[in-house]
Amino acid sequence: AVPVRLEHVEISRRRDVIVVWVRSSDQKPHYLVRPGHPSMRPKAYVRVQDKSVGASREAEKLMRDKSRDDVLFEFGEKEHTLMRYLETYGRITVEQFARVANISRKTASRTLVILTRAEILMLHPTERQDYFTVADRA
User: Fold this and answer.
1) For 67-82, b where at least 16 C-beta lie within 10 A, e where not — what string?
2) pLDDT tens-place string over residues 110-128
3) In terms of pTM, does the model score above 0.70?
4) Mean pLDDT of the chain
């Protein structure tokens, strides 16, 4: 459980807003569990500007394993394909990577997560679909 603070804000006589304050946690991800809805899978969320959006599988994986040490991978043909695509287009989604590298979505996801953990790529969560870019090396 995560401690929350609720604030009621009256917008007009017919409209109210409930503000939910949740502190950042080192034990991410936390999941929204809906009691009484056993068929609904618990959902993690991330902040994107002023909104909370459902976390992608990749965002959840990256939250679970914060370790950046000892990330080992082979820089093979699919990684070369990825870097050429990023050099041309600047960003890529899991589905785009799977398509251009002719690999499964699962393999594309795993590869992008590993390269993000190695700080070669950066994940950008969005409301519609997450994408990856080459990480800033500044």
Assistant:
1) eeeeeeeeeeebbeeb
2) 999 999 998 899 999 998 8
3) yes
4) 88
Q: pLDDT-based confidence at 67, cuts 50/70/90?
A: low
Which tokens hold the place of 21? Answer: 């304050």
Question: What's the rounded Cα separation, in Å, for the pair 131 and 86?
Answer: 11
CA dihedral for 30, 46, 74, 118, sign (positive or negative): negative
- Taking the C-alpha atoms of residue 60 and residue 40, their distance in angstroms, rounded to an integer, is 17
Evaluated on CA atoms 51, 41, 109, 138, the torsion sign reads positive
Residue-wise DSSP of 7-62? EEEEEETTEEEEEEEE---SS----B--TT-TTSPPB-EEEETTEEEEPPHHHHHH
Per-residue pLDDT tens over the stretch 4-25? 899 999 999 999 999 888 887 7
